[in-house]
Give the backbone structure.
Amino acid sequence: MGREESGRKQQLLHSIKTLLLSGIAYIVNYGILLVLTPFITRTIGTEAYGFVTLAKEFSQYATILTMALNTYAARFIGLSYHKGDLHQANVYFSSVFWGNVALAISILSGILVFIHFLDSVLVVSPSLLSDVKLLFFFTFVSFGVTTVFSVFGSAGYISNRMDLVGAFKTASYVIKALFLMTAYLLFPPRAYYMALGMLAAALLLGVADFAISRKYLPEITVSHRYFSFGAVKQLVLNGFWASFNMVGDILNSGLDLLVCNQMLTNLEMGQLAIAKTMQTIMQGVYYIVNQTFIPRFLKSYATDAPGKVIWELKLAMKVSGMLANVIFAGFAAFGLAFYRLWIPEQDIRVIYVLTIITLLTCIPSGPMQPLYYIYTLTLKQKLPCIITVTGGLINVASMYLLIRYAGMGVYAVAWTTVAVMCFINFVTNPLYMAYVLHMPPSTFYPDILRNVLSCGVLTALFCGLSRLYMPGSWLTLILCGGFCALFGAPLHLLIVCSRDQLGALKALVRRAPKYKEENK
């Protein structure tokens, strides 16, 4: 076996380890969410739970202001580090840190004014007003902590120790769960406890990222001596389009609950917030895959290995598509049973239909998600951002028209987002991503179409299984979910992988124990 092939397989094994540890963090986090959500909705009500999700979405709006500085931080720090230019890496690192401190202070100052006039901006029941104000306050304190410590998170990508990041995330989710359980069991129920739990998790993760940075990148430190307005300007100018793209993302999906609050009812806002829980879980899946492969994308691009970048991008597409398809197909088949067990007191048929509609965007976005890093690697953000924002404006306008004149209600909010995002992920992104990599326009379409075929096959099979047997308890539902995962994952790989790729995967699995022994 050649040295290059051996190195590639060792990197794959490390990626699998990172994926597993990140997956554990993901399961713990959303397992906690699934356990606590019905308890919290019963305790504080569906309307109050809707405001919990809305507060998180408002913090995403504030992210527009921080993305310009932070989007390319890991890229510029990592490229300088891998090329041996430690001075420039320190300049970027320190400049981002002090810039984030200034941004966090400015945003928190502004949000205090917003909270003071909250009842003039949002429709809030008088009985919930003080609770919702505290909810927004602590949500943005958590946002400030995350912003200040974010540059230390780049150390995990640069040193390729995302496995440690995954382990610390698991710990932070456990801390959050223990805090929430204690608060809701021992004290009068309040919505702002959710924000306090997020703050506790953010503090732990910030400290963990700092520790990883000091251990694995000791040459990179924060110092006022390294601060450079020139570096901040370079990062902001390159990251401007990422902030602009965030505006498009918010227009496409982040305004859903705000539209419900302003044009529909807070009950419908709460129902949509519950339905979007599964979409949030899917985004967590994408994040796990992305953080596993980004260190490899970054290093391959820094060492001018375009063929290797394409190979790794297509591998990431298959893994991300596999997870998205199995979850979508499984929920399409057993989602009603899940909601009957999870939130039996809610209108589960409405929530189930809303969930399936929102998850339709996962069919094309599953394999496409890892490819979004292409725009970061190549610094080609302008055209994709313009397309995303244009689509977002069309989305919001369509929501308004369909609610106002077609009487579609909350379903209009879900359907318009699906239509716009499917067009972007099926048409504009694959073509432009191939273009910026100087590849043929059809480069990614075979993988995308195979993924769609896989999703259709898995959904048909799992729905057929649900007609034969619909679980009625948590144990039987978990067993059905486990069967779908064990059966669906290899079937997906059979559909999307070529014979050579399947052979490589089999060889990797067979050689895993040997590599583990060699690397002790």
In short: Confidence is low (pLDDT under 50) at residues 511-520. The first helix runs from residue 3 to 44. The two ends are 20 Å apart (CA to CA).
